């Protein structure tokens, strides 16, 4: 069976423009509230993530600073060791010099014509020598020979005078030698052996 409704359709109540605006305003406020809530949650998560990153970076920074401190300590120790090595090398280069100075004095001595009575060697390479020689010519030749040595920088004769020893008329001398390392290029093959 078919039913037919002959009653007039009920009309829906029309909304007034003010009511439409209120509903639209409430919908808009609801949408904005939802968007704000989502943005707040997203920014909260982002802040939390950034705080974790900052904490992790601070921890890495702290570890790196410790490594830098450790590396600086090692670097300082290395510099100290390099300084010690340089000092040892410097000492080793100057250590044989006093022997070279005395070798220069002795190797230039004329046979049985000069006799040393005293010899003082200062740490700065100054040699003070006193003795006797047969005559002034032998002493002058000896001083000239010493001046030719690369280890002798200067010779300063302080005094010479006549002296009687066992009926011999000898010349007493007192002179100072400033010895030092040879100037580069001054060493001969004989001196460097």
Write the layout of secondary structure elements.
Elements: H1 17-94, H2 97-107, E1 114-121, E2 126-133, H3 136-147, E3 152-165, E4 168-179, H4 189-192
Describe this protein's structure.
A four-stranded antiparallel β-sheet has the order 1-2-4-3. With 193 residues, the protein is of the alpha+beta class. The protein contains four helices and four strands; from the N terminus they run H-H-E-E-H-E-E-H. The protein has two domains: 49-93; 97-192, General secretion pathway protein M, EpsM (Gyrase A, domain 2), CATH 3.30.1360.100. Strand 3 and strand 4 (168-179) form a beta hairpin.
Provide key terms for this protein.
2 domains; disordered C terminus; alpha+beta; Gyrase A, domain 2
Give a short synopsis of this structure.
By secondary structure, the chain is of the alpha+beta class. It contains 4 helices and 4 strands. A hairpin with a 2-residue loop joins strand 3 (152-165) and strand 4.
The percent range for strand residues is: 15-25%
Using the alpha-carbon principal axes, give the shape.
rod-shaped
CATH H-level superfamily title of the largest domain = General secretion pathway protein M, EpsM
Percentage of residues assigned to helices? 40-55%
CATH topology of the largest domain: Gyrase A, domain 2
The CATH class of the largest domain, by name, is Alpha Beta
Mean pLDDT: 85
User: Which regions have little confidence, pLDDT < 50, spanning 5+ residues?
Assistant: 188-193
Euclidean distance between termini CA atoms: 139 Å
Radius of gyration: 52 Å
Total helices: the number is 4
Number of strands: 4
Task: Spell the H/E element sequence.
Answer: HHEEHEEH
In the CATH classification, which architecture of the largest domain applies?
A: 2-Layer Sandwich
Biggest β-sheet: count, sense, barrel? 4 strands, antiparallel
Q: Indicate the structural class.
A: alpha+beta
What is the total domain count? 2
């Amino acid at each position: 069976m078919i039913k037919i409704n002959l009653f007039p359709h009920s009309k829906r109540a029309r909304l007034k423009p003010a009511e439409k605006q209120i509903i639209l305003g409430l919908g808009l406020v609801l949408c904005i509230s939802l968007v704000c809530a989502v943005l707040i949650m997203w920014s909260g998560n982002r802040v939390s993530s950034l705080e974790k990153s900052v904490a992790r970076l601070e921890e890495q920074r702290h570890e790196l600073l410790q490594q830098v401190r450790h590396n600086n300590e090692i670097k300082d120790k290395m510099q100290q060791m390099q300084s010690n090595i340089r000092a040892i090398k410097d000492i080793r280069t100057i250590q044989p010099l006093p022997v070279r100075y005395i070798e220069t004095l002795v190797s230039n001595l004329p046979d049985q014509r000069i006799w040393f009575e005293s010899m003082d060697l200062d740490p700065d390479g100054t040699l003070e020598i006193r003795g006797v020689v047969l005559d002034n010519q032998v002493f002058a030749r000896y001083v000239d020979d010493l001046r030719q040595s690369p280890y002798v920088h200067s010779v300063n004769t302080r005094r010479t005078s006549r002296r009687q020893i066992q009926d011999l008329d000898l010349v007493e001398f007192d002179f100072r030698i400033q010895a030092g390392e040879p100037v580069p290029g001054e060493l001969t093959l004989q001196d460097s052996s």
